[in-house]
Protein 1
Amino acid sequence: MSLIVQKYGGTSVGSVDRIKAVAERVARGRQAGRKMVVVVSAMAGETNRLFKLASELSDTPDLRETDALVSTGEQVSAALLSIRLQSLGVPAISFVADQLKIATDSNHGRARIKSVECDRVVKELERGRIVVVAGYQGVDANGNITTLGRGASDLTAVALAAALKADACEIYTDVDGVYTADPNLCPRARKLRRVSYDEMLEMAALGAKVLQGRSVELARRYNVPLVVLSSFSDSEGTWVGKEDRSMEDVLVSGVTLDQNQSKITIAGVEDSPGLAAKIFGPIAAAGIVIDMIIQNASADGHTDMTFTVARDDLKRALELMRSIAADIGAAGVRHEAQVAKVSIVGVGMRTHAGVAAKMFNVLAAERINIEMIATSEIKVSVVVNSKYGELAMRSLHDAFVNGGAAVSSAETV
Ligand code: ADP
Ligand code: ASP
Ligand code: MG
């Protein structure tokens, strides 16, 4: 008998009617002879609503209490789905993370999973029940409720699929697969039949929120077969799995846009050894992830350093930068609260030259100024003014995906 972990996102459980539809889909799976574990998100908008309530009561709500609060949305959905399944005559039982033991560290708001205990799940599955699990949450060694980061019900699902050695992990959402770009922003985006773990990981990290980044990382590590499907239709989804040879024939698999980035410049710093360590050491110690960095050419022994951070981290990063700037005698700190990061991703880039050059040409033709550039083996990212983000994404999509992958071998990156 096959064992499947399914995950339903916020929109998919966003109303009583949607929960009824999910219960029917789950019931059909069971009729087809599958054992099923179902992970649910909070109803659409609920997690944001809970965060807002906390912020109305305090400027700096305590992180432990915030997790206790925002994790409740998932508990509600899990119980509601279980109630509906039972009313259809399908035996079901819901659990929160504490009851199963999805153990995490104590990093509230972004906790990492340490272990997943499945004994209770296995027992219930053997009794013929559907096991419904509240996503997004864990419990630390002291019994405190933690959350795993925004969008992390995907991670709960993959972690359970890995621990249970499930035959597949099905992620049901409001689009019917992974597209070459966000279909809600790019009307010409096409659905991918398959995408490699590496490409999906880059796409998720670069703004394609259809899958949460760490969930893809975990799926890759434990070889969990992952498929993205729509809870609104029965169309074939997108498989995320190991790379195979034919994937390299495609130059660019996806174009992403991330509008949640900020840019900080620390100006007029003395260009001497140890400078970068002085600036970025405290940032790293504060757990702030820095993405792109550029250092301007030195003039008069002084230079500017510019880098990007997630917008959620901007306030803390700026506070740190201002105190570092004062310490090291820098001329000042400037920032732009919102910039757009636009990226092209594809394993085919490993074997083709000229991709970055073509990307820059496409943006130049639209007269879009590139502020920063970063590359890896399978991606090229640029930062542009946020008002041109969507235009940049669509132009790149037209050039690389709809327009084919004509990169002359004479061009070089
Ligand atoms: P859920 O609540 O089900 O977890 P999310 O809102 O987290 O759903 O993710 C689904 C959304 O991801 C889609 O509605 C779509 O706008 C967005 N998205 C961004 N990039 C892509 C992409 N390349 N392919 C498909 N969807 C994408
Ligand atoms: N409800 C959580 C969020 O909104 C987790 C999730 O939906 O995956 O971030
Ligand atoms: Mg999501």
Protein 2
Amino acid sequence: MKTAIIGYPRIGTLRELKFATERYFDGVLSKAELQDIAALLRKTHWQTQIENDIDFIPSNDFSFYDNMLDTAVLINVVPKRYRDLRLDYLAEYFAMARGYQGVNGDVKALAMKKWFNTNYHYIVPEIEDDTEISLVGTKPFDEFSEAKDLGIVTKPVVTGAFTFLKLAKFTGNKTPDDFIINIITSYSEILKKFKDLGAEWIQFDEPALVMDLTADDIVLLNKIYSEILSAKGSAKVLLQTYFGDIRDCYQDVISLPFDGIGLDFIEGKKTLELVKQFGFPADKTLFAGVVNGKNIWRNNYSRTLRILDELRKTGGDIVLNTSCSLLLVPYTLKNESSLSEEYKKHFSFADEKLTELADLKKITASNTPAEIPEYIENIRLFKASRFCPDASVQAAVSSLSPEGFIRHPAFYEREKIQKAVFNLPLLPTTTIGSFPQTAEVKANRSNFKNGKITLKQYIEFNKEKIAECVALQEKIGLDVLVHGEFERNDMVEYFGECLDGFLFTEKAWVQSYGTRCVKPPVIWGDISRSKSMTVDYIVYAQSLTRKYMKGMLTGPVTILNWSFPREDITLKECAFQIALAIRQEVLDLEANGIKIIQIDEAALREKLPLRKSDWHSEYLDWAIPAFRLVHSGVKAQTQIHTHMCYSEFSDIIGDIGDMDADVITFEASRSGHAIINVLNRRGFKTAVGPGVYDVHSPRIPSTAEIKAALLKMLEKTPREKLWVNPDCGLKTRGNAETVPSLENLVDAAREVRRSLQP
Ligand code: GLN
Ligand code: ZN
């Protein structure tokens, strides 16, 4: 069996691409220098795969920002407002990704959305009525040729036409059908070009096929591929799916003239069943996703071999593949010097997964697999017990009663009580929590970590920053203040470090969007809180102001979703363990005089199953209770806020309401405030702060712009339920844009407030 991967991370083992791109944004690096660094990274990544004996090495999995955006640009899906800026290729590309504010104009970034059920975010292409889809770009071909010049014949990867059309936003009156001829022509040309360049296989990524598909979707799929494939000639086309099974279109897919089909045997609950039930054509190659592309745990070879035994019965060629792109896992364990071998031997990052593929290749090729040392060692690893359980945590979870999940009194009662005690102005202004993480803030943390400063010095510095931040917010005139989160590297890692049960890595970064990376902690054991985590800083911040200081916590579902979870207990059990720990912190803050507590569930929607039929049974039925458990013990007079990093929750709005928070803030600016209409229609009870400007872009919103957004929201939102805030935390921004943006926000709120006074 040969080996393949679907895609490889691109940001660099030490985040070289991130730093280079940011230096380019700052004008420190030229375009040519940035491109040189990118080429070097691509070369290194290809070579790593060669060293690990990977047979199908992807190209065009590289991106300066996002592959979806790359595909849009490739086929001329560039909205007019960006073309009108008349920028060069790369600058236009980044304008779409991040917005542009400069001599050529002022345009916001395109919307960004979660990539299926991951913490990666893609840029949403916009197809306008007069968009002329045609193959205009050269990136995939350039990168294929670049590898070829290095002597590596790669398997180019391009987002498939179906997924592209499903994820793109149609801004005018036209629908996918209106663009289908041009799409087909463009993709046929892509195939032809690759064939001419000497590609043997071309991979079209179609993760959208694992979603619930309608009859129309299936017609669209058949139409697209019967046409594209009719022009393919001798080039071999691999249809690659991932993040689930393709139960709605399996029979269509195997009937189409693909040369290879990539299926996910990890997240695809029904994949094996589909293959058994409907067979797999012996004239096609099955790219079997048996090595998990998302988790960080070692592959269980015995289990994998059992799947492969089943697949062998189909009689066709099998290629050992990852279940999805390795973009979603860190690079390598080699850079983890402080984790002990005891733990590390259970881990597998991207490079170790390459080794696993190579091991499996060796084992499957052997007549005496049981004698292969790698196999013997793997069996031993999985036989040994791994976790050290904490009986008291497990007992606390198993003794939870339904009553523990209900907050008293009920929402409307609390609303009345809170209105009276808080006495906030109409349209209260606030922020989501973090303030800019300047170089000195980061230096303080790293100096402390490296032992260059004492704990006392470290805390003193943070307190100084908190004092500055409180003073700044008072000066700007915000109503509900925050402490600024200067002690937090990351909203999940910070809590992971304070809680028991987590492990940490040094360099295990994973790209979240663009140049942003996260370093998820690893859940190793049972989780508990042995000390307070935020109380000192928050109480100190509150002591500096007469305004309300929000306590700032991360919720259990987000902590879980942004960590690498255990696989030996259920996610539900793990979420409840975390919930109980955060609950203690909430009660501790309340006992120390904090009246408003925000519990961020930034990532709540992230792990929502891709298929609707699984939403409740597999996820919401424990995720929402986990959140309720965190705050059900507080008094009526304590106001609970939550925050979410997206606004696509119209379809789970009832569940969001069931979280029973008093106030919810969320992203709304990039997606055009569409959610407001839904909230209104559904009579959403929770007070809302739909973000009035986009913090993922360095643009400064004007007062008029924010005012207009507020007036628009007020058409559909009762005035007593509306809060005014940016759409997310400010940590990735600089002070230069943050201060004027917040000043404009406060001005806008005041002006609108004045216009509302009777
Ligand atoms: N309180 C966090 C912050 O402001 C929330 C971040 C997030 O939603 N991703 O940074
Ligand atoms: Zn957010």
Protein 3
Amino acid sequence: MNTIRDAALAPGGRLKIDWVREHMPVLRGLAGEFKTTKPFAGLRVAICLHLEAKTAYMAEVIKEGGAAVTITGSNPLSTQDDVAAALAAAGITVHAWHGATPGEYAEHLRLTAQSAPHLIIDDGGDLVTLLHTDYHHLLGEVRGGAEETTTGLIRLRAMVAEGILKIPVMAVNDAYCKFLFDNRHGTGQSVWDGIMRATNLVVAGKEVVVVGYGWCGRGVAARAAGLGARVIVCEINPIRALEALMDGHRVLTLSKAAALGDIFITVTGCRDALTGEHFALMKDGAILCNAGHFDIEINKGDLVRLADCIATVRKGVDVYEIRGRRVYLLAEGRLVNLAAADGHPAEIMDMSFALQVEALRYLNQNYGRLTAGVHPLPPDLDEKVARRKLEALGITIDSLSSAQECYLTSWRQE
Ligand code: ADE
């Protein structure tokens, strides 16, 4: 039984999946292999991810691998109802719809957990944490999970520190082919896609404040500069702050940057990056948005408390009038790249999702050998995805001669 908005939307969703499939050659290669190898035969796989076309294609590849797949969205605003309908029509169990209320979102997650999965793909840790709380009795069957985001890994590592995590989880986010491309180039492009679609305003000449200079922040700041903005970075980590400076950005405290910014983007992974003390300093027309996993980086409670008037001025754009000045919040403070656009480009998610599929295969192959905890993805899998991507792009690279290999493995200088 599916929990979707409208099954009749399936044809439109299928067109979207077909489009991204064309641009995901590494995943396509895995699907080709799985036609005969069926590495997930007889297994149940549960997925909690942004339910848009790239995710849908990955779910289909896992199904091609022989699994019974159940999927839910990892954010109520990133689910696309036509894609959900297309997946349901293709025999995948779907519990998700766009704009789910907090209660509906929780119910969709519960229905997904109730599929009693052997393997899990999670984005933000909601499914794994639910299985460790309300569905503890199902953990015995779980062979492992794979986590997509920085935020999810922070939660999982907190569970490890408290001795609570009972399954092995692969830290897909920490693989090179994930964070170097998805976090940096994917977020860098898709955040601007979301901001531009939501506002239809120019970026060139604006003062852009990027709050947080992790891999996502680096990408967002670099693309802002490329679009002609002047970039201010706010950071709490001294090394990252120096890096931002030497990357050519201005580095300021948030209390200084608050009065200068035209567009603010939070990418910290932490709560309360922007609060009432900052909103009170902002200029008329300032635009706020978030690209961190949860909608806690911009304190919406403070915005509501300070506002004399709140209204929706355009799809995905709410105005908060604070002492005669207008502050605009995009996508309700949720991930702007997924709530106001389609997420990262397909060519980028090709690598992230190939890593996810490889992580599931690795968990299954090593079932019984991996301890409970967070595990790095083996480097050979990371490299395999990079090689396949290069191959698909028609790019060949050099290799070491045997004399060079000898040199690099010897301490003698001959
Ligand atoms: N599409 C599906 N999952 C995504 C993610 N975690 N970030 C951006 N785009 C996505």
